């Protein structure tokens, strides 16, 4: 399963202190490992990546508490600067309040601003109960998302769990992808997420995971 882990990995560098050299190193490592994409902060664009490596960029990250218009503008700019995929954060507070019409409108604004790219919607699953996870996934699907995604990796409530991934997969079926991210630091954990239904993984410790070693810290 090691090859499949690399091939569905978004090799991620989202540390606020990341330098231009760190970004270049992350791109090179993603290409070397055969990752699906490199996932970066929008301010580092434009970047050059080897052929076959997609560029994913976060939107409204990490809090999600940005106006939908701001997220849409950020998405539009990222695409104009070379982003192939967007990982946007919902307004988690709106989901907790049960305002899923607002969640759907938020996602739809980004979808309409960037119609030609893969859109992954981060629902911050560790901060939601099961009913809220289901409703957030349904709102994302209704708004035109391509993936639902567990976590930013920055929320104090935690990251991906097998339970959340399985629930998200049951909710979206085979219509959308499911991305597990946040706190995946070992090969065993990555494989467990795949078994639970993840079709993409957000990893900062991709090399250690592919090689089967435990990683300390990371996205």
TrEMBL record:
<comment type="function">
    <text>Catalyzes a reversible aldol reaction between acetaldehyde and D-glyceraldehyde 3-phosphate to generate 2-deoxy-D-ribose 5-phosphate.</text>
</comment>
<comment type="similarity">
    <text>Belongs to the DeoC/FbaB aldolase family. DeoC type 1 subfamily.</text>
</comment>
<feature type="active site" description="Proton donor/acceptor">
    <location>
        <position position="179"/>
    </location>
</feature>
<dbReference type="Pfam" id="PF01791">
    <property type="entry name" value="DeoC"/>
</dbReference>
<dbReference type="InterPro" id="IPR013785">
    <property type="entry name" value="Aldolase_TIM"/>
</dbReference>
<dbReference type="InterPro" id="IPR028581">
    <property type="entry name" value="DeoC_typeI"/>
</dbReference>
<feature type="active site" description="Schiff-base intermediate with acetaldehyde">
    <location>
        <position position="149"/>
    </location>
</feature>
<keyword id="KW-0963">Cytoplasm</keyword>
<keyword id="KW-0704">Schiff base</keyword>
<protein>
    <recommendedName>
        <fullName>Deoxyribose-phosphate aldolase</fullName>
        <ecNumber>4.1.2.4</ecNumber>
    </recommendedName>
</protein>
<dbReference type="InterPro" id="IPR002915">
    <property type="entry name" value="DeoC/FbaB/LacD_aldolase"/>
</dbReference>
<feature type="active site" description="Proton donor/acceptor">
    <location>
        <position position="87"/>
    </location>
</feature>
<comment type="pathway">
    <text>Carbohydrate degradation; 2-deoxy-D-ribose 1-phosphate degradation; D-glyceraldehyde 3-phosphate and acetaldehyde from 2-deoxy-alpha-D-ribose 1-phosphate: step 2/2.</text>
</comment>
<keyword id="KW-0456">Lyase</keyword>
<dbReference type="InterPro" id="IPR011343">
    <property type="entry name" value="DeoC"/>
</dbReference>
């Amino acid at each position: 399963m090691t090859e499949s882990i690399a091939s569905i990995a978004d090799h991620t560098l989202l540390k606020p202190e990341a330098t231009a050299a760190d970004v270049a190193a992350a791109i090179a490592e993603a290409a070397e490992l055969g990752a699906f994409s490199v996932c970066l902060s929008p301010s580092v664009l434009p970047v050059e990546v080897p052929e076959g490596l997609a560029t994913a960029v976060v939107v409204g990250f990490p809090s999600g508490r940005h106006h939908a218009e701001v997220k849409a503008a950020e998405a539009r700019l990222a695409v104009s600067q070379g982003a192939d995929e967007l990982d946007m954060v919902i307004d988690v507070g709106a989901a907790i309040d049960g305002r899923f019409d607002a969640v759907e409108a938020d996602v739809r604004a980004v979808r309409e601003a960037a119609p030609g790219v893969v859109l992954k919607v981060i629902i911050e699953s560790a901060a939601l109960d099961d009913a809220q996870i289901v409703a957030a996934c349904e709102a994302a699907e209704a708004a035109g998302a391509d993936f639902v995604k567990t976590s930013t990796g920055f929320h104090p409530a935690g990251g991906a769990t097998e339970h959340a991934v399985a629930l998200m997969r049951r909710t979206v079926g085979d219509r959308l992808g499911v991305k597990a991210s946040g706190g995946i630091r070992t090969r065993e954990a990555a494989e467990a997420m795949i078994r639970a239904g993840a079709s993409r993984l957000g990893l900062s410790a991709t090399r250690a995971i592919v090689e089967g070693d435990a990683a300390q810290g990371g996205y």
